[in-house]
């Protein structure tokens, strides 16, 4: 097509159709850039190269409206307006390898889940779910997260976290009416690291005590360990500081989650599946762009990309 033709004018700086750019961005956030040209050729019969895929992903991500990207979906937005609704919030860090070494990307997940009992086991079926992710200092992440789950929203907010200091302070300051639960599996991991060798029953007793909200008994057992060291002292401090967030018996009676499996799986499905493949290393700009595209992909917000390209055409 002639460069003088109206349809050949640049879209986001590239002489590529909005439709093709959309498909390049969609495939680029799922497959490594080098594999996309073959897929495009197979599906559309159009020849593209790896550089086009990379540039398209960068251009689209840099021009995406981040405020719109962090808005909750319709179902979550409606639930947040009702005092009777329970909305879960989970936050954790995920490491990505970059040109300057390993860097942490804060990941958040806001969702609803229906509780049920299956063979005497507590289980939950996920309903509406949205993601937030941001590389760098946590203050940039929290700004985005508060768009996804506004602190002033009317719903019952239930945070399940590992008890990191910055997370606790942020929740206390911005979500003072929320319930903050410490992930029981994280507590059990800490207990396992100090458990006497060969005494599996000791760890089983501590877990049972936790499930019955007898945190003080657990603290007493830890203090009685032989070979008292800095790790044990740190665990005692952790248990004492967070025991008011470990009323697991009451939480389970209310049908609430007490584990953070939903955010652990988010690390894999949101970031790791695309950004932590063998031999991968990211420049900061490329890392940030891919994170935005992955959030758009997982949040089913590709209409934002279509709107962006349509308006730029």
Overall description:
By secondary structure, the chain is α/β, with parallel strands linked by helices. It has 15 helices and five strands. It has a five-stranded mixed sheet with strand order 3-2-1-4-5, sandwiched between helices. Strand 1 and strand 2 form a beta hairpin. Helix 10 runs antiparallel to helix 11. The model has no long low-confidence stretch (mean pLDDT 92).
In short:
This protein has 313 residues and is of the alpha/beta class.
How would you summarize the topology of this molecule?
Elements: H1 18-28, H2 36-44, H3 50-63, H4 66-69, H5 74-80, E1 86-98, E2 101-118, E3 121-135, H6 138-148, E4 156-161, H7 165-174, E5 179-182, H8 184-194, H9 200-211, H10 215-223, H11 230-242, H12 248-253, H13 261-275, H14 284-298, H15 302-312
Parallel strand pairs: 1-4, 4-5
Antiparallel strand pairs: 1-2, 2-3
Helix share of residues? 40-55%
Secondary-structure class: alpha/beta
Q: Can you write the helix and strand succession as a string?
A: HHHHHEEEHEHEHHHHHHHH
Percent of residues in β-strands: 15-25%
User: What is the CA-CA span between the terminal residues?
Assistant: 16 Å
- How many β-strands, per DSSP? 5
Radius of gyration: 23 Å
Uncertain residue ranges:
none
Mean pLDDT: 92
Instruction: Please describe the biggest sheet, giving its number of strands, its sense, and whether it closes into a barrel.
Output: 5 strands, mixed
Strand arrangement, major sheet: 3-2-1-4-5
Number of helices: 15
Shape: elongated
